[in-house]
Amino acid sequence: MVGVALPLNPVGFWRPMRQDDLPAVGGLAARAHPDLPEDDAVFAERLALFPEGALILAAGDRVAGYAVGHPFHCAGPPKLNTLLGALPARPDCLYIHDIVVAPELRGQGLAAGGVEALLNLAEPYPATTLVSVYGTAAFWTRFGFEDASDRMAPDVLAGYGPDARWMVRVTRA
């Protein structure tokens, strides 16, 4: 489907992810992150553990993007392509696992709705964290994230690629 324009209602809309969306999520993840593959089971587990943090960008009747976030620890990200087993008993941040918009639909501001929805979920936590990959740090700074990679041991981010950056957004002081 590379290069195929997806039908899109006027702006697309973000809705809760469902089990039947998971094959499309896996397909989009494989297209968007060919060098950072994750098993479908990772997305299924995140949906099961924290369904309110699993969203879909709907474009007509198709999945044109996804956003996944969940409570975690500010000390660092989970290892890539790893099941959590359970959410932490005492999370201190909301971790944005991934936000993807289909490559052929990027540049239209569609990701912002997913980011904002996850940031709304982050309000009870002192911070929101994520790993920026593929040079997207500038995108994340528009939402108040700052590069905090200097606080992270280099080997922690190694599995996320050579340009991985640990990003933090303080929710409340």
Gist?
The chain has one domain (about 15-170): Gcn5-related N-acetyltransferase (GNAT) (Aminopeptidase, 3-Layer(aba) Sandwich). About 25% of the residues lie in helices and about 25% in strands. The protein contains five helices and seven strands.
Keywords:
173 residues, alpha+beta, Aminopeptidase, seven-stranded mixed β-sheet, 7 strands, 25% strand, globular, disordered N terminus
Describe, in plain words, how this protein is organized in 3D.
The chain has 173 residues and is an alpha+beta fold. The chain has a single domain, classed as Aminopeptidase. The chain has 5 helices and 7 strands; from the N terminus they run E-H-H-E-E-E-H-E-H-E-H-E. The chain has a 7-stranded mixed beta sheet, with helices on both faces. The longest helix is centred in the N-terminal third of the chain and has 11 residues, at 22-32.
